[in-house]
Amino acid sequence: MRPVMLALLVMVSACGGPTAYGPAGTDGLGYRETALDDRRYLISVAGNYETPADRVTLYLLYRAAELADQAGAYGFEVLRRDSESLTAYRSANGGSILLGGDNPRYRDYPRAAASRAGYVYPITRYRGEAEVRLIDADDPAKGQANVYEAAALLARLAASVRGS
Predict the structure, then answer these.
(1) At how many degrees (to 10) do helices 150-162 and 53-70 cross?
(2) Pick from 51, 87, 89, 98: CA 20 to 30 A from residue 149's CA?
(3) Position 162 confidence tier, pLDDT thresholds 50, 70, 90
(4) CA quadruple 2, 4, 10, 13: dihedral positive or negative?
(5) For the purposes of burial, counting CB atoms within 10 Å of the CB of 26, is it exposed (0-12), middle (13-18) or buried (19 or more)?
(6) What is the pTM of this model?
(7) Could you tell me the residue ranges of all domains in the chain?
(8) Once rounded to an integer, what is the mean pLDDT over residues 34-58?
(9) How is the chain classified by DSSP, letter by letter?
């Protein structure tokens, strides 16, 4: 039992908490944006296994608000948003990740792996993507549910995003 507890302690301490807000590093975690034209951006955010889906969404919105603010725009309109989850399975007695997920080919894999490796638990990470269009204060889209005012959003979310 002691080696299992030690392995769990090492795994938990190595994770270091949810992904901090910032540009993606060499590990791919964080945000990235691609300018599609002078007013449209594709923003993606990837979190680690301790970053919940709602935090990934929060980072997407915050980054879009930063881009709008930097461009001197009133805000932004979300044209398209998508998210995905990737679930892997970790063996408590070996610490190895056993691939699985939503692919039907792996549907029974966790059960089969559990019988070989002992206790197996799922770990899930989230990735989000949004296409946004920067808008001015007189844009006809202003007032729609998918339109956000950059300054208000930055002020409201700063403590949650920057303080985390």
Answers:
(1) 130
(2) 51
(3) confident
(4) negative
(5) exposed
(6) 0.76
(7) 2-162
(8) 95
(9) -HHHHHHHHHHHHHH-SSPPSSB--TT--EEEEEESSSSEEEEEEE--TTS-HHHHHHHHHHHHHHHHHHTT-SEEEEEEEEEEEEEEEEETTT--EEE-SS-GGGTTHHHHHHHHHS-EEEEEEEEEEEEEEEE-TT-TTTTSTTEEEHHHHHHHHHHHHHT-
Interval 20-35: pLDDT, tens? 999 999 999 999 999 9
Asked whether the beta carbons of 149 and 77 are under 8 A apart, the reply is: no
Can you name the residues that pair with 128 across neighbouring β-strands? Answer: 45, 83
What's the length of the chain? Answer: 164
Q: Quick count: other Cβ atoms within 10 Å of Cβ 33?
A: 19
- Single-letter amino acid, residue 38: D
User: Among positive and negative, which fits the CA dihedral 57, 60, 63, 65?
Assistant: negative
